[in-house]
Amino acid sequence: xxxxxxxxxxxxxxxxxxxxxxxxxxxxxxxxxxxxxxxxxxxxxxxxxxxxxxxxxxxxxxxxxxxxxxxxxxxxxxxxxxxxxxxxxxxxxxxxxxxxxxxxxxxxxxxxxxxxxxxxxxxxxxxxxxxxxxxxxxxxxxxxxxxxxxxxxxxxxxxxxxxxxxxxxxxxxxxxxxxxxxxxxxxxxxxxxxxxxxxxxxxxxxxxxxxxxxxxxxxxxxxxxxxxxxxxxxxxxxxxxxxxxxxxxxxxxxxxxxxxxxxxxxxxxxxxxxxxxxxxxxxxxxxxxxxxxxxxxxxxxxxxxxxxxxxxxxxxxxxxxxxxxxxxxxxxxxxxxxxxxxxxxxxxxxxxxxxxxxxxxxxxxxxxxxxxxxxxxxxxxxxxxxxxxxxxxxxxxxxxxxxxxxxxxxxxxxxxxxxxxxxxxxxxxxxxxxxxxxxxxxxxxxxxxxxxxxxxxxxxxxxxxxxxxxxxxxxxxxxxxxxxxxxxxxxxxxxxxxxxxxxxxxxxxxxxxxxxxxxxxxxxxxxxxxxxxxxxxxxxxxxxxxxxxxxxxxxxxxxxxxxxxxxxxxxxxxxx
Length: 576
Ligand SMILES: Cc1cc2nc3c(=O)[nH]c(=O)nc-3n(C[C@H](O)[C@H](O)[C@H](O)COP(=O)(O)OP(=O)(O)OC[C@H]3O[C@@H](n4cnc5c(N)ncnc54)[C@H](O)[C@@H]3O)c2cc1C
Fold this sequence. Notes:
By secondary structure, this protein is an alpha/beta fold.
């Protein structure tokens, strides 16, 4: 097969152009290190742009008592003791610097009259420590980082799909991919690789991710290269995702809708939260509201389309227009529905991957030498339940740290071992898929995968369902060799979808097997057959391939942090 091919060499390759990837690339460029960022999606439109509510750091600009130690304690507590205390410390202690970096790059944070950065409550935080820019914080962060990367002339190829990491004897030496527009192949040699490819929540039917993002690519790439995944069963479901239209199912209705006084009702018109949390009602925690809505739907008290009603129509119109403008606009755009008059139909939606690639706390390095993972692709900060606002700060802190480590690693590398075999295998894999003439289409298989994850690994799981999910997954895996690919001159998206599916299947298997192994209910992981928390399972589950899961002890929490841990109410505090 004749291929149009480009060969590039760089010191550090960053895979992704979301918040974590750009922060890493900026650090490398500021240090004068040769860097290249590649991503399958345009840099201005990475998933990070969707983040709404804010970014956490104990700046104490509003609540003077706040400290990074309290932030660490809240994060570990809310994570049901599964977070890595080293990672939690690094992020919370480094958070102020992360915000200062953003300020230095020109981030337009909301400020108090005297110029201090404003901070608001967000979820189960003890103090107000969430900095923000309107209800579009992620969009502003992405813009700010893109601008800074442009100033530094960081090369970003944002139509390149990475299909494989190039590794030999557990050492990474680059990546292989193709251009999604014209099919040009890319062989990128690099001393070190930083994986910032996001999570896997698009593999559920209802998800707050958009089409073709968060398909678990980072997990497939990492495992194939020899890295391991941690706690993949821990997935955060947001209580309110839209049911329709189908191609936008799961689009988030901000929790601000409940925060402002929105009421949840089931298909029978009952205000069902009174059965689950009569005190806090709709202002209960995210995992409880998601579980309540799920239970109503599952037990046959949902709306005809399988959701529940979220109603703000009793609120004054000005409140809706001033406090919920994005929700109002989204519903008009997607459903032509006026929320000042009509309730919204919502259901729990897959929102955030709390597990991910297993990394070291000191440098976000993986089991593969020279390979680092950051952002939603990595794991260790959130444990079994993510505190709203913590993921954005993680991007800033570990983006910088992994870049420093990769720069040092690259500088210390005398010679690099490469493997012609690894390269040939990567190229032949793409050739093989492109020459597929079978009868299977990739899109229905992706849909089948989303259905099985929704049916068997949603908000509530049990052994029989998870085993059934694994059988259905095996059927999808068996259908892959019969996929026919039809890339046309306009786009190689069809090929990209096949690689999305391959990675999604790895992520799905790790999630199902982890969920089966975690025989307890903890945080976002609900097992109806094991409804209690099991102290002996206060461990991380580390997955290294089909059927291979090991329990790993969580490092002890330092005493000064443990002393600050307490139950924090999230009533009245928005969480996203
Ligand atoms: C609606 C919504 C609201 C949110 N609100 C908040 C909030 O208020 N506060 C908060 O802290 N968090 C929030 N989050 C979560 C937060 O936005 C994400 O966790 C975070 O932005 C992830 O950033 P990232 O850099 O890890 O990856 P992403 O931004 O997901 O970027 C991943 C990158 O990898 C690239 N990529 C993936 N696969 C490949 C491949 N095979 N080849 C090449 N490139 C690839 C993509 O193109 C993309 O550039 C929210 C999320 C959503 C959906």
